[in-house]
Amino acid sequence: MAHPLLFDGTWTQQWKYESAEAFYQQVLSGTGGAQSQGTNVSHGSNLKSEIAKARQNIHKALNDLVCVHCVVQGTGDSTSGGAVDQQVLNRIKSLETENKNLKKSSQDLTSLVKKLEARVAALELANGGSSAPASKPAEKPAAKDEDSDDFDPFGSESESEDEETKKRVAEYTAKKAKKTAIIAKSSLLLDVKPWDDETDMKEMERLVRSIEMEGLVWGQAKLIPVGYGIKKLQINCVIEDDKVSTDDLEEKIVGFEDLVQSMDIAAFNKI
Length: 271
Hints:
Elements: H1 8-12, H2 14-29, H3 39-73, H4 86-126, H5 163-178, E1 185-194, H6 201-209, E2 216-227, E3 230-240, H7 246-254, E4 260-270
């Protein structure tokens, strides 16, 4: 068993126990007296203080919003629910003024357009016409040309073979027979070359022109120097494509072999 004198020191430090008891009571009552006793208690007290401040700021902001809404709607003044930022109020008033001006401009433009429409209508009436375009009279169907090329005497099998039909068939056939068929023609420029410079070029041209074929017409001719005193005969002619072949024409010209060395087609154009 321990000696009783070992516990005598407890009463000499009684102030520590009393201080701890007082601190415990302060913590329970929330008076914040525990700041000097530890970091954790100090942080808890600061957190409570920040939360309280945040709540105050939220309430103030809500009051300001309610006040601004009241001012905009005209149901309150700038002092209700707290002080409102003067710049916000000035901006709201500026927007209201601008909105009124825009509405007025829109109304003025609408009125001007209506006046212009009325003036245009009056001018149209003064010119003897209405604003709506006059309806065009119905066009009469074009009379059928009895001599039209599109007439088909055999178009309908149900038509009776009367005298009128036979007459129209005869007229159509006669008109078709009188029509001139389109003839395809070509223009040729021929180069006829001699053997040497001693060839009689006039005789060569005479022989070439002596060629006669149905659908062949000779044109102008001229002598063109080739070199070393030699000249070639360049002659123009027109042929009907269905009647004259260029191969046949070349064969006839080269047939004058005593004077003609060769023949070339310098130009070939359809007419």
